[in-house]
Amino acid sequence: MAKLKKDEPRRKDGAWDPLKDSSTDRRSAAGVPQTPQSMSPSYRLAYADDDFLCREELRPVRLQLELLKAEMILAEHGIKSTVVLFGGARIPAPGQAPWAARNETQRKNLEGASAYYEEARKFANLCALHGEKHDHQEYVVVTGGGPGVMEAGNRGAVEAGAPTVGFNVVLPHEQAPNPYVTPELSLNFHYFAIRKMHLMMRAKAIAIFPGGFGTMDEMFEALTLIQTGRMEKIPFILFGKDFWHRIVNWQALADFGTIAPEDLDLINFVETADEAWKIIGDYYEH
Q1: pLDDT of amino acid 110
Q2: How many CA atoms lie within 13 Å of 110's alpha carbon, on the beta-carbon side?
Q3: pLDDT of 9
Q4: Most exposed: 116, 160, 232, 235, by fewest CB within 10 Å?
């Protein structure tokens, strides 16, 4: 049998592929002479036409693309499981001014909450150190990619020498990824629904710190998935028992009957990073 030549058509996975790839045709199409015909929007290749892809009718395709792009990137980096950190974007690092405070009460509350920034940082560090035993393919720290607690999570992982994921989302006000997200694992979403799917799809544990509407949205969605059996029961950890019992009357839900008494057992309340990791370690490692 004759040996294959180096320039014979092969895909990255080694499969034979005699068809010209789309990137080559995109470059070729961009180099055609500029005429009224070639400059017309109708002449653009469909997959290289941003205006076409943003049409209302293409929403199902965009949903698929957002789901597929993030999945391919995580798979290519060998990420098998994650620990997801949720928490307030407005919580400052210790010593930093609480930029979101509107009055003196908020300023004092947010400054005091900087302790959670440090615990999130320590917790992510612990996750990353244990993930190192698995070549950083397990217990990979994932956050929403923004400031506050999210920044603390990505920061703690990076300080342990681990890769860390940021799932950002386009918001009306500018939200750039925090500087601790691994650049190759910094993803941006238009659809909250697809972002939420990816936050859960590899989750081996969920840790939630004090936060606002977004944090509570993610918290209750994850709890609902676990409660209804649509997701495996995994360690579900809330940092700051006093905060969460003040914000949500968990026992009242059970007393009223809108949740079962045993549903309260899905939640673990902790104060420190060490407590949180012990719950995860006991669940998976022992």
Answers
A1: 97
A2: 24
A3: 77
A4: 232
Distance, in Å, from the CA atom of 24 to the CA atom of 18, rounded to the nearest integer, reads 13
User: What does DSSP assign to residue 41?
Assistant: G
DSSP per position, 228-258: TTSS----EEEE-HHHHHHH--HHHHHHHTS
| DSSP 3-state of 55 | coil
Q: What amino acid occupies position 181?
A: V
Residue 270 pairs with which residues in a beta bridge? Answer: 239
Nearest to 131 by CA among 168, 158, 151: 158
Nearest to 211 by CA among 241, 236, 243: 243
pLDDT at site 1: 47
* Cβ contacts of 93 within 8 Å, gap of 6 or more: 114, 117, 118, 151, 152
First to last CA, the chain: 54
Query: Mean pLDDT for each consecutive 10-residue tract of the chain (286 residues)?
Result: 60 86 89 94 95 97 98 97 97 95 97 98 98 97 97 98 97 85 98 97 98 97 97 98 97 98 98 98 88
Contact status, residue 175 vs residue 203, Cβ threshold 8 Å: no
Structure tokens at 285: 């490692």
- What is the arrangement of strands in the sheet containing 186-189, beginning at the earlier edge strand? 186-189, 165-169, 140-143, 82-86, 203-208, 236-239, 268-270
Which residue in 67, 109, 87 sits closest to 215, CA to CA? 87
Say how far apart CA 102 and CA 222 lie, in whole Å. 30
Residue 21 pLDDT: 84
Q: What is the pTM of this model?
A: 0.91
Query: What are 84's two structure tokens?
Result: 């997801």
Cα 54 to chain center, whole Å?
A: 24
Helix (H, G, I), strand (E, B) or coil at 182: coil
Instruction: Give the pairing type, strands 236-239 and 203-208.
Output: parallel
- Which pLDDT score is estimated for 7? 62
Q: Phi and psi dihedrals of 253, rounded to 5?
A: -60, -45
